[in-house]
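Handout, section B. The chain below has 329 residues.
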Amino acid sequence: MKLSILDQSPISSGQTAKEALNESLKLAQEGEKLGYTRYWIAEHHDLPGLASSAPEVMLGYIGAQTDRIRIGSGAVLLPHYKPYKIAEVYNMLATLFTGRIDLGIGRAPGGSAEATNALSDHFLQQVWNMPKSVQELLQFLENDFPADHAYAKVSASPLPPVAPEPWLLGTSEKSAKLAAENGMAYAFGQFMSDKDGEAIVKKYNEAFKPRKSGQIPQTILTISALCAETTEKAEEIARSSFLWKIQNEKGESGQGVPSIEEANHFFLNNKELLNKMKKNMIIGNPKEVRQKLFELEQQYEVDEMMIVTITHSPTDRLKSYQLIAEQIL
């Protein structure tokens, strides 16, 4: 099984954004040592508790302090930007870190309506134009506009020896269809979707149209997981992320990922809610998590599993990835 890391660069209560970003670097470095295939960092805007608003900045920082692990965006929110600029940025990263750069793209706003308006004009129109933007981005990455195209003489320089690998990230049938039509690799975000992911991944594989000779469909299933030495400890650690999700939904997440103590206090009289939230996440000891990961891999028939883990303590997060790697990699 191939395993990878999705990092939302969470800020815990009592922690600064700089400390959170440094923990992201440590996670990528540890992931490389453990044998994870790739490390992706997400893009969010003006969301308290999440430190990464510019993945491309962190990728330059991380790339310079790692050697082998693939690094990329999970995802660049394309409707905010012109495809040419994104191609330039990721071509430059691919020039610096040859053969290691992934360009994951998505269409979510990544923040509030106010932040979206501050960041870009006509966002909804750009979401509507997403298929055209994706096509244009791919042509810039491949440097293959037709001779009569307005951009035929424009290159997204510097042109790297190995182009960034484009991925489309999504949580719906629409995203799977767009990826398949453009011959792109596809990452399904099961951890943030209530759709029938198994059917969506299957439709992507069935509809895949290669852009180039030899291309085959590639799939990643992204899940939320937390592993500890015992099931009981894993469940206790996970409560912080559950409470943080509740706080986010209420707009009360300004203090960052809450402590285990705060989470224990909250769920003391909310057992039913706690049990419901546990169903959307893989939680357990190493053997339990291993079994569940292999079951999902076979159920979805994907090429790779990507794990996102939110904890209050960076040590607990690192330990979770270490324990999983020891079982699988």
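Note. Strands lie at 2-7, 38-41, 70-77, 101-106, 165-170, 185-189, 219-227, 282-284, 304-308. Compare this with the example in section A.
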